[in-house]
Amino acid sequence: MGFKCGIVGLPNVGKSTLFNALTQTAAAQAANYPFCTIEPNVGDVAVPDPRLEKLAAIAKSQQLVPTRITFVDIAGLVRGASKGEGLGNQFLANIREVDAVAHVLRCFEDDDITHVEGRIDPVSDAETVETELMLADLDSLERRVVPIEKKAKSGEKEAKEQLALMMKALVLLREGRPARLAELSAEERVPFSQLGLMTAKPVLYVCNVDEGSAAAGNKFSAAVEAMARRQGAGAVVISARIEEEVAQLPPAERAEFLSSLGLEEPGLNRLIRAGYRLLGLLTFFTVGPKEARAWTVTQGSRAPQGAGVIHTDFEHGFIRAETIAYDDYIANNGEAGARDAGKFRLEGKDYVIADGDVMHFRFNT
User: Fold this and answer.
1) CA–CA separation, 256 vs 252, rounded Å?
2) Is the pLDDT of residue 35 over 70?
C-alpha cells in the first residue's frame, strides 16, 4: 500500500515541472501558459529508504523492492473553478480521487513566468484554491443533505448518522473553513472520509522556491510555513528546477550536485516523508535471500493487516508474525544474530506494527 497524492495549484506555479522531476519523466508538458496540463498525468515512483539497502546487504538479497507512491499532476485551478471556470469541473473530479493534496505554491519571483493573478503572494494563492474547493464541497453537500434529512426524520438510523457527519462539515464550510477541521471520533473518520469532500483531505503545502532559496527558504516560504502551522497542515520547501536538474543527472553525480547547493538529499525524499507524516503511514520490511521488500501500512495497523498488504490469504489465515526491530536486525547482523541476542519475537493478532519492523508471517492456507 502506497498512497496517491494529487499535485494541485494555480497555473504556472511549477506543478508539472515538479511532477516531471519526481517521476523522472517528461510525461507532463511544462509550459508557460495556463492549462498546459489537461488530462491528469499519473506517475508511480519508488519511495527512497536507505534502510532497505542495509537490510538487503546483510541478507544478501538478490533484489530490492521499495514501496511506491503515486503522484497525480492535476491541471491548474483558477478563481471560479467551483462554478466551472477554466476546466474547473474536471479538475475538481480529479482531486476527489486522491488520498492527499500536495498544494504547490509559487514562492519565487521571475518576470519571465506570468502569474495568473498578476502578483506573487503564495498565501493568497492558497486561499484562492482553498476557497474554490470549499465552495465546491458546500454545493455538493447542500444538494445531498436534503434527501438525507428526509430519511433521518423518518427514523432511519444510518441516515441520522450520515446527517450528523454532513452537518459537521456544513457548519465549517458555511463559516469558510475546510472540512478537515471537523472534530471526529475514531469511529467517525472512515464514514466522514466517504463523504468525498475535497477539503477533508490532508494538505501538504509545497513551497516552490528559486534555486538560491532551496536550502533555507525565503520570505514567501516562511509565510506559507506560518500558515501551515496555524492550520495544522504540513509544509516542505523544494526548488522544482533543482529537482528537474537532479532527475537528469546520473545517480553517481547527484550527491555532489546537491551538496554544492547546500542540500543533503533530493526534495523527493522530503516530500515523501512529509506525505507519510501527513497520512500517518509507516514502513515494515520482509527480508530474504531472494528479495528485500518494503511495505506501507497506516499507523496503528495490527499484524494481520500487515500480512494482508502482502496477500489477502495471509490475513485470513494469520497465525503469527516473526518480528525483529530494524535496529536489532542491523545491530545483530541479521536474523540469526537477532535470535541469539533474544531480539527475535513471536507476535500475535493484537501486535501493532512499528515502523522499521522486519517481519515474516506464518499463516494457514
Assistant:
1) 8
2) no
Cβ neighbours of residue 296 closer than 8 Å, sequence gap 6 or more: 1, 2, 3, 47, 67, 281, 282, 283, 309
Order of strands, edge to edge, in the sheet holding 358-363?
Answer: 63-65, 291-298, 281-287, 358-363, 318-324, 345-347
Please state, in angstroms and as integers, the Cα–Cα distance from residue 235 to each residue in 69, 102, 226, 277, following that order: 18, 9, 9, 11
DSSP 32: S
Q: Is the pLDDT of residue 30 over 50?
A: no
Q: Is the CB of residue 244 less than 8 Å from the CB of residue 140?
A: no
Q: Considering just the CA atoms, what is the radius of gyration of the chain in Å?
A: 23
Q: Give one word for 84, left, alpha or beta, with left for phi > 0 and alpha for psi -120 to 50.
A: left
The answer to whether 197 and 168 are in contact (CB under 8 A) is: no
Selection from 321, 319, 313 nearest residue 286 by Cα = 321
In angstroms, the CA 91 to CA 17 distance is: 18
Q: Which of 43-47, 182-186, 228-232 has the lowest mean pLDDT?
A: 43-47
Give the pLDDT of residue 38: 39
Which amino acid, 291?
A: E
Going by pLDDT thresholds of 50, 70 and 90, the confidence category of residue 171 is: very high
Whole-number average pLDDT of the chain: 86
pLDDT at residue 352 is higher than 90: yes
CB environment 267-278: b (16+ within 10 A), e (fewer)? bbebbbbbbbeb
At residue 77 the predicted structure's pLDDT band, cuts being 50, 70 and 90, is: low
Q: How far apart are CA 332 and CA 336, in angstroms?
A: 8
Secondary structure E strands in the chain? 4-8, 41-46, 63-65, 68-73, 100-107, 203-209, 234-238, 281-287, 291-298, 318-324, 345-347, 358-363
pTM: 0.80
- Residue 263: which residues within 8 A CB-CB, separation 6 or more? 214, 215, 242
